[in-house]
Amino acid sequence: MLMKSLKIWFNFYCSVDTPMIKNKKLDGDIQGKPVDTTLYRGMIRSLMYLTASRPDLIYVVCLCARYQAKPTEKHLQAVKRIVRYSKGTINMGLWYSKDTNMSFTAYAYADHAGCQDTRRSTSGSAQFLGDKLVSWFSKKQKSTAISSTKAEYIALSGCCSQIL
Q1: At the top level of its lineage, which domain of life is listed (predicted)?
Q2: What is the pLDDT of residues 55-108, one digit of tens each?
Q3: Do 79 and 112 share a domain, yes or no?
Q4: Is 41 buried (19+), middle (13-18) or exposed (0-12) by CB count in 10 A?
Q5: Does residue 96 belong to any structural domain of this protein?
Q6: Which of 25, 81, 119, 123 is in Cβ range 3.0-4.6 Å of 113 for a Cys bridge?
């Protein structure tokens, strides 16, 4: 039933160019109108499945997944936007072909105090073999960093441990 209604919704709405509105931060939205947690969690579960081959969705899906306990209309709109984005980029994904370039490159990032509720940062990294993405992660940091430099050091240590 849930998947059938999602497919109908997916086919009805037009696609968007970005998975999230620029400069819009999600928070706990205590005064927001609550929505059905079963629907919200089902949508998050489906999007989590997509992240295995769509690293462009990881950050925004993990951000929305933080609010599964008490989702509001604001959170549901953010998830629906991700679905609309995935509709427009349905042919995107990981593609691995034979390649002679075997150089290894790694990138790490952090958003200092990006979580509006806890002021914790989100770390992430991406590792490439040649120009092919082979490993990635996005995770909220366990401690609150007091500067952007410290948040980036935490992200870098996570990236290094992913490499090893």
Answers
A1: Eukaryota
A2: 999 999 999 999 999 999 999 999 999 999 998 998 888 887 776 678 899 999
A3: no
A4: middle
A5: no
A6: 119
